[in-house]
Amino acid sequence: MRLLALDKRLRPFATRRVAVAGLLLVLALMAVMVALIVLSALDRVATYANYLDENRSRETLVGAVETFEYQLGSTLLDYTAWDDAADMVYVGKDMPWMVSNFGDMTYDSDLFDVAIVLDDGGRPLMAYSDGQPVEGAASGYITPALLGLLEQVRSGKSGPVPQALGFIRTQKGIGAAGVALIRPKSGTFDRPPAERVYLAFIRHLSPPTVKRISDAYVLRGLALVPPSSSSTEVPIIAPTGEEIAALAWTPRAPGDQSREQVESLMTAALVIVAVYCLLLVIIGNSEMRRLRADEANAIKLAQSDRLSGLLNRAGLHQLLEAEVRRGRQTGEDVVLLYLDLDGFKEVNDAYGHATGDRLIRAVAAGLTVLVGKEAGLARIGGDEFGIVLTGPDVLDRALDLASAILSFFDVPLALGDRSVVVGCSIGLCISERGSVDGAELTRRADMAMYSSKDGGRGRWTVYDPKMDEERETRNLLELDLRAAIGRDEIEVVYQPVVDAKTFSLVGVEALARWTRPGFGPVSPDVFIPIAETSGLIDQLGLCVLHRSLEQLKAWPSLKLSVNVSPGQFRDPDFVDHVAAVFEETEIDPSRVVLEMTETYFIQSPDRARQALDRLRKFGLRIALDDFGAGFSSVGYLRQFGFDRMKIDRSLVQALERGHRAVEMLQATVALARSLGIPVTAEGVETEQQAVILRLAGCDQLQGYLFGRPQSPADIDAFMLRPMELRAKAAELAFAASRDHGVLV
Ligand code: C2E
Ligand code: CA
Ligand code: CA
Prior knowledge:
The chain is built from 24 helices and 25 strands. By secondary structure, it is of the alpha/beta class. Strands 17-18-20-21-22-23-24-25 form an eight-stranded mixed beta barrel, surrounded by six helices. The mean pLDDT is 90.
């Protein structure tokens, strides 16, 4: 559960990391996309500008070519629809006139550079090129294409004006050509076809001419080229439809130029975008690193204990799992030591939480030194610590460490101006070559630690599989006990308490008995501790109280002792419950003594005192039970003002061993008596013990010598033999005076 919680605490970091990475990626993508969009927009603008310019240039050039041809046509019209020419050609057949008016005009002329006079059969009467007569048949100019134009005129297909135009290829190159009938400008023309004469002009697209067109129309690099499919040329088409050449120009590409203009700006913008992306990467990186560091910190924080600075339970779990995993690979053993402080709660209750915290810090510091750097140390809970050891001879080292830790706790710990004594119970468990996983290792070490506690604290215990069996047995026992209490199957027996002088019965102690179905009688030393740890003691205690008070009605002359466990005091309503039972049974509380061991008075002195005061106000009396078995401080006697003290049977049985024990007992009883506290001795088995105890000052005795715990019927019978007992008492008194030289 805790580990799940840890995961939950770390989840925001992963989410934030993903968010930051995502955001940065989106920002970078957006920047790149904007850059791409701007670039392609610019490219489109440039391409479109180029396209527009190209179209304009083409239209201009098409116009220029048409104009070129048109100009030739109008020149030809001037020369052929001419009265003088008709006279000179038809009437005078004047060759010199023709030469000077047609042929010579070809010299250095912008309008035409070849002039040919043809008869109706297409034969040349005169042919001039660039001011020079053309020798021979002038077949280099009178091409089939030119003759085609002539044919158009002759056949009248050229329309109302007897003139035909078109581009042709000649020996000189490509040019516009025109053929027209020479005729008077006005009046009728009635020559028979065979006599008709025609004038042909050719205007070549010579390089200077092309250059002039280029300059006039602002078309850069205009040149005559063979026809191709290039988009920056205009075809020159012959009347037959054949593309005989093309005029190509060098595109100005204004788009490219504008692009060049903004290229540096664009480069700058791209650099800025690149820098922006780079910055994003850098920022992202450092943000990621910061997040990762935060996460590492959070993990560390989540795995460490704030008070001691050690690992906490989650941290220990992580460490254990890692070591066990490693052990599985390397074949190394892992040992876990589970520590629980003895008496920490008492220090906390007595001196407050600040002192408790200081104690934890002091213990943590001490353990850190003892454990060294090689091992892992964690604070698992309030006063629980865990130590993880690995490496060679790990169990031996762990046992040495456990002994060292126990010696460390032998010495009182100095906390400021106070010094406190706490102990430590240790459980150990080994995971051989990582064969036991972390959780199970923890459970086993914890169980071994409890075994140390049960065994009397301040010791170490290595886990034994038997502990699991015991735990199981105990669990089953607990189940049966719960059922028995529920069914009111707990019996009560009564042990006689006699007057030390007369040996007459003065009271009884109520003792619980349980016969477990299928198992037989179970000793209270077994089921009472189980009832205490399982919380069943509240019910069980009241049950015994109720029964014995009912029984007491039958014994009006006797007093009753009832045992109360420390655990019952933890129930805040304990006193009320007790009062209710008295009310119900109508027993006078002054007839009853509650017996308590000192453990509770050590653990919670303040609360114990409050509870005692209330019980006493109610009329009950309180005895300190088992004095001499545990800490047995006379200080408690004085502090809590007990009404009676019961000397533990271990002390009584020690009497056999000699004078020192006798003196000890005498001193103890004397002290109690000096405080005005009467003393009962329990576990009296021999007459000799009885004598010594009486001489020491005990006013009541209890033990097998006088009677075992027995049924109410047996107690009834017991009361019928008082005489016999008195005789025994007298006898004993005599024996005592003889042994000790004392007369009673
Ligand atoms: P305890 O209060 O010290 O009770 C006296 C125990 O000593 C009884 O053991 C009794 O049988 C035993 N005993 C009495 N005289 C002699 C003797 O001469 N020699 C020896 N060897 N033993 C003697 P028992 O009945 O087994 O009870 C054990 C303990 O269980 C009690 O010790 C008491 O602490 C606890 N207990 C018993 N009944 C109750 C109960 O109803 N409530 C609570 N809270 N504890 C109980
Ligand atoms: Ca008792
Ligand atoms: Ca006792």
